[in-house]
Write a structure and sequence with these properties.
The complex is a heterodimer of chains A (445) and B (545).
Chain A lengths: L5 H12 L6 E17 L2 E19 L2 E7 L4 H17 L23 H4 L3 H17 L3 E17 L4 E16 L6 E8 L7 H14 L10 E6 L1 H12 L4 H5 L25 E3 L21 E5 L2 E2 L6 H7 L11 E2 L7 H6 L3 E15 L4 E14 L2 E5 L3 E5 L1 H4 L3 E4 L3 E4 L6 E4 L2 E11 L4
Helix pairs in contact in A: 4-5
Chain B lengths: L26 E2 L12 H17 L4 E17 L2 E19 L2 E7 L4 H18 L16 E6 L11 H17 L4 E17 L3 E20 L4 E6 L19 E2 L5 E2 L5 H16 L2 E2 L3 E7 L1 H13 L4 H5 L13 H5 L12 E4 L20 E6 L2 E2 L21 E2 L8 E2 L3 E4 L8 H6 L3 E13 L5 E13 L2 E7 L1 E6 H6 L1 E4 L6 E10 L4 E9 L2 E10 L5
Parallel strand pairs in B: 5-7, 11-21, 12-19
Antiparallel strand pairs in B: 1-3, 2-3, 2-6, 3-4, 6-7, 7-8, 9-10, 12-26, 13-14, 13-18, 14-15, 16-17, 19-20, 20-21, 20-22, 22-26, 23-26, 24-25
Helix pairs in contact in B: 1-2, 3-4
Classes of the chains: A alpha+beta (445), B alpha+beta (545).
Chain lengths: 445, 545
Amino acid sequence: MSILNKEEAKKLLEKVIKLSKADECEVSLSGNEGGNIRYARNAASTSGDVSTLTLSVNSIYGKKSGTATINEFDDAALERVVRRAEELAQLAPENPERMPLLGPQTFKDGTGYVAATAAMTADQRADFAAKSIQVAKDAKLEAAGFLENTTSFIAILNSKGMFAYDIDTNVIFSVTTRNQEGTGSGYAARGFNDVTKLDTFSATKIAAQKANGSVNAKAIEPGKYTVILEPVAATYMLENMFRGFDARSADEGRSFMSKSGGGNRLGEQLMDEKVTIYSDPFHPELPGSTWSRDGLPLDKMTWIDKGKVTNLTYSRYWAEKKKVQPIPSPSNIIMAGGDGGSIEDMIKSTERGILISRLWYIRMVDPQTLLLTGLTRDGTFYIENGKIKHPIKNMRFNESPVIMLNNVEALGKAVRSISEESNRSYLIPPMKIKDFTFSSLSDAV
Amino acid sequence: MKRKDFLQMSALGLGALVLPSTDLFAKEIDVADLQNPGMPTQAKKALADVALNTAKSKGASYADIRIGRYLNQIVATRENRVQNVSNSESFGVGIRVLVNGCWGFAATNNVTKDGVAATAAKAVAVAKANAKLISEPVQLAPQKGHGEVTWKTPIEKSAFDVPLKEKIDLLLNVNGIAMKGGASFVNSAILALNEQKYFASTDGSYIDQDIHRLFPNFNITKIDRALGKFETIKSLSSPVGMGYEYLMPTAADKVSGVLTRYKNRYDILEDVQQATQAVAQKVNAKSVEPGKYDLILDPSHLWLTIHESIAHPTELDRVLGYEANYAGTSFLTLDKWKSKNFKFGSPLVNVVADKLQPGSLCNIGFDDEGVEAKKWDIIKDGILVNYQAIRDQAHIIGLKESQGCCYAQSWADVQFQRMPNISLMPGKTPLSVEDLIKNTEKGIYILGDGSFSIDQQRYNFQFGGQAFYEVKNGKIVGMLKDVSYQANTQEFWNSCSAIADASDYRLGGAFNDGKGQPGQSNAVSHGSSTTKFTGVNVINTARKI
């Protein structure tokens, strides 16, 4: 049993803190429980489950600290891990950036735990997979997919009395359906805290429609095009940008948030005024932790407000150096939608453009401008005079999300969407972007 | 198995090194504990027999067990301070069984007789539960048991025998050289791994292996505040299947040229000096004129192109559709192999798969199914001749035995098909890097690996690099920046026009090749000599924001 409730966690952590002989001490407990199922060629391929509980002790002597962890909880083990942390701390060099621990804080309770997800069984996972596979078989396609559910908690207590607890549940699902000839492919992905919202049948139906709709793709000339990005494509692209909303790397002069001549871009109109990006751990569709790992409360925070950079994260150390308030890294990211309507509305208003269902293998080319390269995948369609005309061959792009968000023509309603590599959830709208740069054709389906 | 972890959204900055994620089961231990030998072999054999017998008694036709102890040390520094020192140990057991033609797997960190018996029973239960979702029974290629055997990476000095202080001093020295030389920021790190893996199977194998890996590296940022521009450069070291001897340089292992490169011994203090100068030049380098160029690719760069465009598409399970939901499939479909006439590359292109090269990351005695390390051709004289397969795939390509490509990243993960070393063979006649440059009118010489991206069937790719030198009429005339090249895999490898000889051959590689859902890491090396490709499309990646 790896999931402890708030009281059980606090009791164990208090027992460990009492063993500390160091100047300061911080103890944390984290547990994970869950399982997964993977399928390919319309059959299950692998499955697994996991149950872990880990105690981590960070002992501090002035500016020196050391960390030791264990996954055994008898009295002898607890004594051992505290002593080890203290020995490592005494061997460690001083870290001039170490900040003193914070005292008691009040954190609101998070809303990310859903009992139904925590109770998921291997049979339920197999059933979700079976429903998806049946859709593919009925559509004469081959499905490959993955489903994973996790329940995780983390609790922290320090020698100054700060205590925090968070628990959440998560289920992710993705499926790719392909035809026998390898000439059509479609994809769908979902992520929720609440498994009762997951419908693998409907999701696979959409993937199947895209697969069958993408046969007989025609090649078009690469270049700059107006594109409509479905949320899963936009999420994967923008995720690369969110990590850069940080003051230190900007102040050091080595990110896209750095200003020429020194300093960062706070206050600058960096994007189109339709763009607002914020965090809110209490958003009903995307609950997040209400406290950060360094012990600061998390609340609503706006990073980009109508295109203007309004906040960047500051670690406690960097905030002190710059004489500002610390701004912790957020536990979720939301991009506000707009009045651009549905994807169908955006298609209707497009004279010439491309509908992109999914992007793939995005990697950083130039961190200075956040230039990324990647490709389209699993459902790329040419739009002419307000209608989808035909599927097109996939293409490679070289584009920067910062430039892209300067070229926003319309934003739809923000929906919960997972990033296909990190599997993190975000709330991102479908978006119509002009002058998106495609640089070459790909033969890949 | 990933905890939704916004709490770790990086404040390290975009210029920082990315450190591999530590195993959730790993526990921090004393530096001295890294030298403990762990559970004695006979004790492991006793536990293995309990597991195998339990599995058989519950209905398994085949079973294997891996008792794994993974020791990990990371020492990471930036400028004049230590960012992190982490010593961890992960110890546990993974049991795989075949019941009625269906695989089952379970793992535990309770390494006792009761723990392994319960886990073996669980694996059988998982196999039985999954049986209703499979369409055809697993067909295992036969494999003879090896009895009780051992294998060790032939290291000269274990990284864990080197005191922490010596590593910290070395890294801070590296950083000091960079900062004195004008660097704006520098990160450096040493990653050391010891995989103590005991494998046993119902075929009658009891294999005890002791595997070592090392990766010292650095990353330098140079900022020109007036211009508002910055450039980065990383070390020319490779991750290796070696001990600490990799960090003890010898003259014989150096290859001189516009930048010194390294074979089986690395001179980190020399490399940081040259890198600091090179990155400063890069800031002021000429921005490349896009167009077609001949490319001369150093092994420190080419390894990644080989990895993405040859190694991944020849993974048989990828060809068959098992990775379709993640990185996709492969354009190297079975019909192309069957034709025995698919011109993957020019007749100069010979690619070999192996788990034998000394110093390589895949150098091993036996894979995670008890199959001994082998070597075979993948591309011969430009023609696709083979793939990478494991026991339950061998029959698909008409093989009577597995090629030995089975691997799991830890005891807690199920083993599956992973890349062995995949290497481009050196040219058969004497040819130096200088010859390649002399014979090039309009070219770019690229060293070090940079950005990388390839499509979901491995056709269209784009690669960056670390250092780019313009070659004009047989001479290097200066550095370039903003360079990336794009190509189609088959066109690219058919444009291979010259390969330097064996004296230039070097290994590059990756510590963390990703595949599978949930994802698993694999460490793999790719060897080559400097190679020339003609008429490749080069783009300029500069933009303004």
